[in-house]
Write a structure and sequence with these properties.
Elements (H helix, E strand, L loop, with lengths): L1 E7 L6 H15 L3 E8 L11 E4 L4 H9 L3 H14 L3 E5 L5 H11 L3 E4 L39 H15 L3 E6 L2 H9 L5 E3 L8 H5 L10 E5 L8 H11 L7 E5 L5 H10 L6 E5 L3 H9 L3 E4 L9 H8 L4 E4 L4 H4 L6 E4 L4 H13 L1 H18 L2 H16 L8 E2 L1
Parallel strand pairs: 1-2, 1-4, 2-3, 4-5, 5-6, 6-7, 7-14, 8-9, 8-11, 9-10, 11-12, 12-13
Helix pairs in contact: 3-4, 4-5, 8-13, 11-14, 13-14
Length: 410
Amino acid sequence: MRVLRIDSWDGTPGGGQTYVRTVTRGLAARGIEQRFVQIVDRVPDDEVPGSRHVVLPSEGASRAVRDVSDTPPVAAALREELDSFRPDLIHLHHFDAAFTTLARVLRDARRPIVFTAHDAELICPISTLVLPNGRICEGGVRYRCLFTGCHVGLGGPYNLWQSTVFASMLQPAVRAFLAPSRATMDYLHAHRFRPAVHLPSFIEVPDAVRANPPEWPSGPFTVGFLGRLEATKGVDHLLDAIAGLVPLIPEIRLTIAGDGPLRPALESEARRLGLADRTSFRGWLSGAEKEEWFAGVHVLAFPSSVYENFGLVALEAHVRGRPVVGTDIGGIPEIVEDGVTGRIVPIRRPTVLAAALREVFEHPERGRRWAAEGRRRVITRYVPERHLERLLRVYDAVVADRPLSSSTEA
């Protein structure tokens, strides 16, 4: 089987890009013949040997013009790969950079396509699925998106064109829409992106962590946050929750691992709330530093205020023996089972978030029990080997032209 994998992405690399590169390596180790083309605005640091890049500028209006019109470098690279490699199927990850050119070339290629929905872009132009009043949106990229008060703005026509191009040029060739969460699968199915197949993601567990999770911390009660520092992640609500807990838990600490455009504003807010001396901003951590960070955390807060497609950081915490308090949106409740591996709270409700964190402090044995169950689930369910086996079953069905039932497990 020959697989042409394409990642069409511009912006800050995130979990989706890590996933794509990890799966590419995993399939190569299994002997799957593949090519990997990345249409990006920067070459990733974590590179896959043998992959091909088409690097495009991302600044200003030129990006919009490029995406909605012909981009010769992208067309030439894709056609060269199609002609020389002659893939049995195409696996498309994201639909962003130079999407109009990408769609035209793949439409003309007449090859079956598997599409992974790494975010909610197919069903929400800004991938949040939350209306300004805090209600969860029913989804669907339509003209009404311009009048809901969502921050679609001048990007509305761009998003509508993107949706139209996908539906007319690519969707007829897509034989499977892969969804990391059941929530995404249900959205895809409801909006006629079918067959929608649930294929949960995974994490790679370091050998030392697999053998022995870090012990329960003995120091001051510490809440951790891990992720990009941007408005969608709800760190502002977490700061409010911590401020409300200080009178009840005077020794409480907050440690934030990650970085992003909101960091200066969050540091300022921590000072305003009187949390500067108990809040640490650690930046991005990896390797031994990351393991040391987890060893000092009692509970991970996952307070996202908009749609999370999967929730990788919850798996990272669980496998290290830490309970998670997460919000009730997207795929988070599928990983964090309320009262079993942590707590699920409503989005944008700092007082409820604070109460759930306080529960872990007041009942540490409960927190440890949740953490143990979360770890067991990660090691048995969310490992690369299981994911790759299920992905290959989808590939086999697509290449053999066997129908896949919609809204199903891979």
